[in-house]
Structure formats: C-alpha cells, structure tokens
Design goal:
The chain is an alpha/beta fold. 51% of the residues lie in helices and 11% in strands. An eight-stranded mixed β-sheet has the order 7-6-10-3-11-14-4-15, sandwiched between helices. The chain has a two-stranded parallel ribbon with strand order 1-5.
C-alpha cells in the first residue's frame, strides 16, 4: 500500500479524493483499533470463518467511512476536517481502550458536563502518547501533502460518485455477510458503540438535537398544589432533612452491604445504635451523574423520564412551593439543572483553605459551610422546615486517591495514577475503598451534627451510580444502561432518623428495617423525600414512599 502512495506524492500533488481515500483507510484500520481488538477477543471469532467475517467487516467499515467522508469533506476544509476526524477518533479510541467504556449519547453528555478539574484527572502520559501517534504524527504528514487544484464541478460529481460507490459496496457486503454480523452485534451490543467515527457522530447528533429540542420547551411547573400537611406550631419543631447525594459509590464496596472490608465503620456504629437503616437492593436510574441526577429529582421516574422530551421542574421546586426552605450545597460539577430555582452554593467558589486545595475540596467542606448557609435562608420558610441537599465529590474517579485525606486512609498502597490500567488491581480497590471510608466519615459526621440540633432531623443517603474497578476489563462508569454491569447500577442507600424525628412522626425504625431488603430504586427518592418533609401533592405516590409504611403502621 505504501509504495504507490510514495510514488504518487513524489511525482505530483494529491487529488483531493485520493487523499480522502488514504484518510479512510487510516480511520477504518488504525482509527478503529479498539473495535478490531474487541472483535479479535470474542470467543466466536476463531478459525477461517472468523477471518472472513473480519475481512468483510473491514471492507464494510472502509466503505461506510469513505461514503461519509466523501459526502462532506471538500478541498477547502479537507485538512482541518481530517485533523478533527483524527482527534475525534483517537480520543474515542483512547477512552475505550483505557477504561473499557463505549461512546454513546450519555457518555458524551458526561464528557460535555465535565469541568476543568475532572479533565485534569484524566490527563496522563499514555493519553499524550496516544495523541502523538493518533493525531500529531498523521496530522503533520497530512498537513504537509500538496493537494492538486481541481475544477469544482467535475470534483463534486466524482467525489459524490465515489461516495455512492463506497456505500453500495458496504451495503452489498453487509447483505452478503448479514447472518454473521447480525448475530455478532446482537450478542455483543457494545460493539455498535465502538465503531469510529460513527459512535461519536451518532452521540453528538442525538445529544445536541435532543438537548436543543428540550431547551426549546417551556419549563413546566409541577406540584402546584404542594403543601406541608402537618405544619408545626413552633420553629424548634420544624424538621431539618438532609439528603446526601453520593457520587460513584457502589454497593459492592460498601461495608454495610456485607463487603469483606469494613469500609463503613462509623455508619455501622449508628446502625448498631438502632437509628440507621441500610437498604441493600437499590438500583440507580442511570450510570452517570448526568443521567442519574435529573432523573432522581424528577417526578416521572426512570421509565417515563428517559423518553421524556418536556422540561419539568424538580423535587426541589415542589418542596420550595410547599413553603419549605431549600438549599443545595455542591462539591461536584453542579446540580445538572435541578437546583436552578432554589438557593444553591458551590464549594469551589468558597475555597475554604482547611478543606480545599488546587480548586478541589474534600466533602467535609459542605458540613463546615452548612450552619452559615442555613442561617442565610428565609426565616419564615425555615420555620416550616428545611431540606438540604449535599452533593458529594464522593468516589469520583479515576483519581480515587484524591478523595480521602491521609488521616482516613486505611488501605495501602493506593493507586496514585490516573491511568488505572497501569496500577495493580488491588491498589485501585485500595484507593477506592479509602474514598468509601471517607464518605462513611462524612455521612456519620453529618449525622452527629444533626443529632446535636434540638429539632427533629433526618438524613437520607443515596449514590448516583456505581463504578467499575476493572471487572471484565471495565473502568469508571457510564456504560449504556442496558449493558451496564451491576457494579455500575447497584448503589448504597442509607436512612437515619433522629429520636425527635421518630417521636414527632410516630415512626419506628423497625418499619424501615422491614423494608431494607426490598427492591428499591432512584424512583423512590422523589416520593420518599416528600414523605419525609410531610409535603402533600397529587404527584405523590405513597407506594414509592418508603416512609408511608411507617405512617400506616403507627
Ligand atoms: Zn456521578
């Protein structure tokens, strides 16, 4: 292949379409390295049949990439477009190879919502190497090639002709090997999301078209009938409910779930004292913050939320409308729109030296800020009751080792690289488990603070999604839900009620304990918080409110 290309470039400048063909071969072959690796590793790709399947897949892919490029890459922007394609395909390949992820709309949404500190966590030497090999070297080569000036009309006709031919070849071959390919993609759905550059193109189109359509919708108010059912007579009887929105904590490594390591000693102590219940079978709505958080605070529930194109207010709007004081404290990359209309504070802006370093804060910073931020809320609303959300940094990866202070770390040595696959698996787990230990410390410390308040208080904790720590070659999270492993969707959930709260409501912890093994999900959050905050609205579904059983049992 290389010899005729050299000859051609030495003799004359490239015909633009010929240069596109070279780019097509690069993108279809090197640019799809993770895809070919994945195919190669499949159990069914063995023997002669496997070779023919791979060969026809390769030709189909070349045909499709050629068709796609010939459609829109014209000489005027050939070189920048080629570099953009190299960059897209290389970054997508790098993340697929490094973390075992695939590229779909929700993964892309994750990337788009990522803030600077998270990007910093992902940068590493292997990533730089990938960029050199996949973008810089081929990019420089391509940029330096002379391209022949060709008359527009014949060029357009010829290139569209090549495009059509490439598509026909691809479709013909696909038709001929349909049986093999169909069974391959049926059995291994993730392969579809590994094909560069179509995975990225599909994700971008789906995401931005979807987002634009939703953004154009008017915001719809929900729970316009919301009211507090049992208003308290004195301000010191007004309940204070804290919801700790966990980050990337998976149930599998949560001490209370029966994990071999006791990663939650302080919560266990509270459980032994009888005021805390751990829920062992809770499913997340999504596998990323971007997918889960809006879903958790939506009245729709997972099934309806996913197909929904309308814009609705969130749980926090309903609580506020009922007259309660509401506060969102954020130690993460924002509340994904759910706290836009209630008082909200980001810890990065506060920059408390005791807990923050290099623009990142340990979760305790939120507790440190809590009394001051509560005092700043409307006193008339506080007299009715308060709901606070604390959005944790939790176990956000890949830099797990940054998620716990030295004093907390018990499991050593830790993986202190961002390129997880370079660390021994046990060091990744050590760093992750230390982050759970710190979450245990943070939640228990919040409970102790709530215990010291004279009013009825409660704490509810739920993680937004889980995490893969190298099982089946997967790292991090964000797999499409239908193919996500349990590690990414099985999340821990905890409820603690103060004695004054138990007395005020007439609830016994045993009625919560009775539900601790029930199959629950993020769908229960909206309705349970309404129950906990004693807010009545026709949106409320008592069957999804874990506290309704306790009220009924009174
Ligand atoms: Zn998350």
């Amino acid at each position: 292949m290389t010899a005729p290309i050299k000859l051609l470039s030495a003799r004359s400048a490239w015909h633009p379409t010929a240069l596109l063909v070279v780019l097509t071969v690069w993108l279809g072959t090197v640019g799809n390295f993770p895809f070919w690796m994945a195919i190669w590793k499949l159990p069914e790709t063995e023997g002669f049949r496997a070779l023919t399947t791979m060969a026809s897949l390769w030709l189909i892919l070349l045909g499709l990439v050629g068709w796609f490029l010939c459609l829109w890459v014209w000489p005027r922007w050939l070189k920048p477009a080629a570099v953009a394609m190299l960059l897209t395909v290389t970054s997508s390949s790098y993340f697929m190879l490094t973390y075992g992820v695939v590229i779909d709309p929700s993964m892309l949404a994750n990337v788009v919502q990522t803030d600077v500190r998270e990007v910093r966590d992902l940068l590493s030497w292997p990533m730089l190497m990938a960029l050199v090999v996949g973008v810089i070297l081929p990019g420089i080569w391509l940029w330096r090639q002379p391209v022949r000036a060709v008359n527009a009309k014949p060029l357009i006709l010829r290139q569209l002709g090549v495009s059509l031919l490439a598509l026909l070849v691809a479709l013909g071959l696909f038709w001929m090997s349909f049986q093999d390919i169909a069974s391959l993609t049926r059995n291994h759905k993730h392969l579809r999301y590994m094909i560069n550059p179509f995975n990225s193109v599909y994700a971008v189109t789906r995401l931005f078209v979807g987002q634009a359509a939703q953004a154009a919708q008017p915001l719809q108010a929900i729970g316009d009938d919301a009211k507090v059912v049992a208003p308290v007579s004195t301000a010191d009887q007004a309940p204070l409910v804290v919801f700790v929105l966990g980050e990337t904590a998976r149930a599998a490594n949560f001490g209370l779930s029966g994990y071999a390591r006791d990663t939650t000693p302080q919560l266990r102590k509270l459980q032994t004292q009888g005021d805390l219940t751990y829920f062992s079978d809770v499913k997340s709505c999504g596998t990323s913050t971007q997918a889960s958080v809006p879903c958790m605070f939506s009245h729709l529930g997972k099934a309806a939320h996913e197909g929904n194109q309308q814009r609705f207010e969130s749980l926090l709007d309903v609580l506020q409308r009922a007259g309660l004081a509401v506060l969102w404290l954020d130690n993460q990359s924002g509340c994904k729109g759910v706290c836009d209309r209630v008082p909200n504070v980001s810890t990065t802006a506060l920059n408390v030296p005791e807990f923050c370093k290099d623009g990142e804060c340990l979760d305790e910073v939120m507790l440190h800020e809590l009394p001051k931020q509560l005092a700043a809320l409307d006193p008339a609303k506080r007299a009715k009751g308060t709901v606070v959300v604390m959005h944790q940094m939790g176990s956000h990866g890949p830099a797990y080792y940054k998620r716990s202070p030295d004093a907390i770390k018990q499991f050593l040595p830790e993986c202190s690289s961002h390129a997880l696959q370079n660390c021994p698996p046990e060091q990744i787990v050590n760093a992750y488990d230390n982050s759970i230990l710190y979450a245990d410390h943070f939640i228990a410390k919040t409970v102790h603070w709530l215990q010291a308040q004279s009013r009825p208080t409660a704490l509810m904790y739920m993680s937004d999604h889980g995490e893969s720590l190298g099982e089946k070659g997967l790292y991090l999270h964000g797999m499409p839900y239908s193919m996500a492993p349990k590690e990414q969707t099985h999340v821990p959930m905890v409820v603690w009620l103060s004695k004054p709260m138990q007395r005020q409501r007439g609830w016994s912890m045993s009625c919560l304990q009775a539900q601790s093994g029930k199959a629950l999900s993020h769908d229960n959050l909206f309705h349970s918080v309404l129950g906990l905050a004693q807010v009545q609205t026709r949106l409320a579904k008592p069957e999804l409110d874990i506290f309704s059983a306790c009220s009924a049992a009174r």
